[in-house]
Each structure stands twice: as C-alpha cells, then as structure tokens.
Amino acid sequence: MKKKGQLSSKIYWWVAVLALLWMILLLWFTQSFNIPVGAVL
Amino acid sequence: MSAIDWIVFFAFLAYVVWDGARRGAQSENLEGYFAGGRTIPWWAAGLSVMATQASAITVIGTTGQGHETGMEFVQTYFGLPFAMILLCIFMVPLLRKNPILTAYEYLEGQFGPATRTLASVIFLISRCLAFGVVIYAPAVVLSAMTGFNLTFMVILIGLLTTAYTMAGGINAVVWTDVKQMTVIFFGLFLCVGILLWELLPRMGFMDMLRVMGASGKLNALELQPASWDMIPNWKSAAGATSTFWQDTYNVWSGFFGGIFLMLSYFGCDQSQVQRILTNPTADESRKTLLLSAFAKVPMQVLILFLGALLYLYGTVLGSPMLYNPDHVALARSETFAAQIEPIQQRYDRLVEERSRLAIQLAEAEGSPRQSPELLARFQGTVRQVAQAREEARKLLLENASENRDTNYVFPHFILNNLPPVILGLLVAAIFAAAMSSADSALNSLSSATIVDLYKRWLRPDADDAASLRAGRLATLFWGIAATVAAMQFAGAGSVVELVNKVGSYFYGSLLGVFVISMISRKAGPKAGVASLLGGMGTVFLIDQTIQVAFLWYNLFGFLGSLAIGLIAARFDD
C-alpha cells in the first residue's frame, strides 16, 4: 500500500508525456519558423 | 568593468566562500562530509545536480553555439528525461539499499573488490582530467573579460573552490550550488529580457521569430539526419560522403545516443551519483533526479534561444567581425592591419545590408517563404557575413577551424550592453557556473579516493577523525592537481577536445557493469573486470576504425561492456 508522501509512479508518466510534448513543440517550432540558409538559394 | 561591478563580483565570491566554509561544522564524519548526513532535501540536491551539469562553458559556449549554428544542440538533451525515469526505477533502489558513499562501493557486493577499485580508478582518471578543463576553459574567457592574467584566473577559480569544498564537504557543494544556480538563472532571464527590450521597439515578437528562422537559427529539432546511410565510413575514408553515424545533432542521435550518455553520467559518475546519496530517502533521491527531468530541456531551450536572440540583435543592430579580444588585437597589429582592412570594409557593408534586409523581412506580410526573392537576398548576405568572418579568422590564425570565437559571443554582449551592477553580477554568474561544476568534481574525487581506496585498502580501521582529516587532505590534493593540470592546458587548445573524448571512453563501460549487476545473478569478479575493460576496448576499436559522432560512443561502449561481461559471467563460479 502506498504510504503518505510516497512518490507515485504516475510521476514517471507525467515526465515522459511532458518530454514528448516538448519534442512535439520544438518540431512544430522548427517546421513553422526555421528555413535553413541555402534552402532557397 | 566599473568599480561597482568589481565590488558586486568580489562580494558574491566572498559570500560563496564564506557560505561554503561555514558548513564544515556539519561534517563530523565521512557520512557528513561526503553524504551530508543524508539530510539534504531533494530540491537543493536537484538544483545542485543541475548546477554541476551547467558548467561555465555550458553558459557561455552554448549561447555562442545558439548564435553560430542555431538551436540544434538542444537535441542532445532529448534522452535526459527518459534516462532519469529509468534511473529512478532501476538504479535508485540499488544505490539506496545500503548506506554507501560512492557508486562504486555498490559494485563490490556483487563483483568483488577488483571491479570496485577499477571502476573507481577509471572515474578518478577521467574526472581529474575533465576537472582541469572545467577550470581552464572558463578561465580563458574570464581572463579575456576581466583583463586578469590567465594563470591568475585559473588559480583564483581553483583556490576558492578548493577552499570552501575542503572545509564544508558536500554540504558546502550543495548549498553553494543552490545559490550559484539561482544567480545563473537570474542572469540568463535578465539577458533574455534585455535583448527583448532592445529588439521589441524595432519588430514584434513573431517578426523576430521569422527573421531568426530565416537565418536558420531555429533548427531545434531535425527529424531528417544529414544522411540515412547506415554503413559507417572507415577512418581512412577521409572526404567520403557523411553517414548517419557522423551527424552529431539530430533527434535520433540526441535521443538514442543521448539516453545512454545521460544514464551513464547521472547513474554511474560519482560527481552526480553522490548527490542522490545525500537525501534522507530513496523517494527524495528520485525527486532529485526528476527535477532535472522536468527542467533541463526548457533550460537548454532558454540558453540556446538566448544565443539565437544574440544573433538577431547583431543582425539588427550590427555585430563585430571578431569576438575574441586576442583576435581583435592581432587584427590591429602591424602584421595584419593592411590585409584585414578590405575584409573589414566588405564585412561592414554586408552587415549593413543584412540589417536592412532583416527589417524588410520583418515588415513583409506573412512567412518569409511568401517573399522568396527577399528571403534569398537575406540568406545570401547571412552566408556572406559568415564567410567574411571565417576569412578573417583564417588570415589571422593558422588553425582557424579549431580557434573559433563561439565562447566570446555572450561575454562580448554582456561587457558592452549591460548596465553597472548587473554586469558585475553576470560576470559573477559565469564564475559561479565554473565553481559549481568544479566543487562537485572535487568532492566526488575526494570521496572516491577516501572511500574506495584509503578506507578500503590503506586504513580500513581509521576512525572518524582520521578519515575526515584524510578526506580534507584528498580534497586539497585534487584541487591542487586539477589547478596545475589546468595551467598546463594554456596554449594547447586541442587538449580540451582530447580530454572530452577520453571521458566518453569510460561512460558506456561503467553503465554496462551496473546493468550486468541488475540482470545477472551469476556475474562475479571475472564478469565485472571483463565488462569494464571490454567496454573501453570496444570504444577504442571503434574510435580507431570508423567515423562515429561522440554521442554514439556511449551506446557502443555500453553494448560492448554488456556483451563481454555476460560472456565472462559464464566463467564465474
């Protein structure tokens, strides 16, 4: 049984989901704004 | 720097040293000196973990990287949160089962004293060399910023860090790291604020993103590596088309290569493991690691975005051709002045043109892709500006590619744009970043020396007072050794790169031996030693034969160590 104050394993899911969200955000950010120099030359 | 900046700078240094040294009273025995009496709260240990990883070179080098090559470096950290989850689930229970003081002490239980000693000696060698770099690299930049002699700067960082770490042990390390990390964060946010303050009257925030993007600086996630060719090039095949394994920064090397680097660094390197041994419970240790899992990627995004903003600032308001003060002095010398002049004139014209086009791009409707002609002209000048800088460096320096001025971009900005007091605080923040990495290295070197060597082999019966005295002397010894090593690096830039490479030889092996202890009950002394040596041998073989980016060394070292260790386990009794 989980003791009071004990770390819940749900926290790992939160960390993983948040990390994936960061990656998705940065992918969107890159694809929306970045144009490699030379790409249009 | 003005007098008030010097006062702020030295007041901060004096406070850190006093704050660290006064914690000596909390260290009555080895557990107090090396594990803080297992009383340190998770948030303090977590900030200390982040401060240790955020060396001064992270602060000044990474902003410089954001300026030069954009945000691609953030991908190296994508594996970190997942590595932390794995460490919380599998590694923390192992390390917190018994009240150990070093990560390698744990290994003795399954593999015997030879593996423990070998792992500890491997750690001591790699960390001592890396420790020299932690002092040397920021000292070069700080001496250029403050005008102090390089040797003096190396001694100042080495001496102050050794003084408070020797007196206060891990308590001093953690609690000074908390303050140092706070100052680093404050400094970073302040610089982003100042840059936005300067730029916002000239263009909106979305326009800024468009211009930075058009400069190729917002490349935070590359799904497509430079090549999908999975057959690596032999070392001898110089000039061959680059393969998948040679591309350093893309999401695949960052995630899969990075995860093994982070598992090794946070799970097997005593300079980090020591922090999770200081918490009262295993759950507190988990929270210590999870703080980095939550905060590290956003922090790197912030630092690299700051670098990209510095580029935009230079684009809109003009930027110098050379950032390193030594290069500037060389360009002004009689030998080079006449040859540099035409390059400088061309550079000035190009910078003016780049600024004009950037404003036009910001004022244009929609995405820059909708104005292809303007975008092409802008990107043309961006490329020509970079070429002119490279040309100037090649003229001045024999090895221009090794002598880039990436590390001087951020210092140049803060020296020339920040108001008094804030400038002193920012220079102190860079100094703090150097000390917060050096102090952890120092205390961990001392703990491995005393716990794994002195108490294990030389004086097993030493009482608390004698052990503590030995711990302080070991701290002093490593402090002097690293400072002397750092002084030897002066004038040998490639040594720094070599030292970083040496570190990646060991990491995969250390992780391999820990994983074997989890998956094989049969593995004993032969498996432990074979695994460590086999992993290093694998990396050596790969390094000598094929072209691979450094992030993959950890994966190959780990796989080699695991395979050889598991085969050797069959010969253990």
User: What summary fits the major beta sheet of chain B?
Assistant: none
Largest interface: A-B, 25 and 43 residues
Poorly predicted runs of 5 or more residues of chain A? none
Number of helices of chain B: 21
Helix and strand sequence of chain B: HHHHHHHHHHHHHHHHHHHHH
Structural class of chain A: mainly alpha
Task: Please state the oligomeric state of the protein chains shown.
Answer: heterodimer
Net shape of chain B: globular
**Percentage beta strand of chain A:** under 5%
The coarse silhouette of chain A is rod-shaped
* Number of helical stretches of at least 4 residues of chain A: 1
Instruction: Label the structural class of chain B.
Output: mainly alpha
Number of strands of chain B: 0
Sequence stretches where pLDDT stays below 50 over 5 or more residues of chain B: none
Q: How much is the radius of gyration of chain A in Å?
A: 19 Å
Main sheet attributes: strand count, strand direction, barrel closure of chain A: none
Distance between the ends of chain B: 67 Å
What does it look like?
The complex is a heterodimer of chains A (41) and B (573). Chain A is mostly helical. Helices cover 59% and strands 0% of the residues of chain A. The mean pLDDT of chain B is 91. Chain B has helices at 3-21, 30-35, 42-53, 56-69, 80-97, 103-111, 113-146, 150-199, 205-214, 251-268, 270-276, 282-317, 325-332, 334-363, 372-396, 409-417, 422-458, 464-489, 493-519, 525-545, 551-569. Chain B is mostly helical and 573 residues long. Chain B starts with a helix and ends with a helix. Chain B is built from 21 helices and no strands. The chains are: A mainly alpha (41), B mainly alpha (573). The A-B interface holds A 5-7, 11-12, 15-16, 18-19, 22-23, 26-27, 29-30, 32-41 and B 70-71, 74, 78, 81-82, 84-85, 88-89, 209-210, 212-223, 251, 283, 286-287, 290, 293-294, 297-298, 301, 368-369, 372, 375-376, 379-380, 382-383.
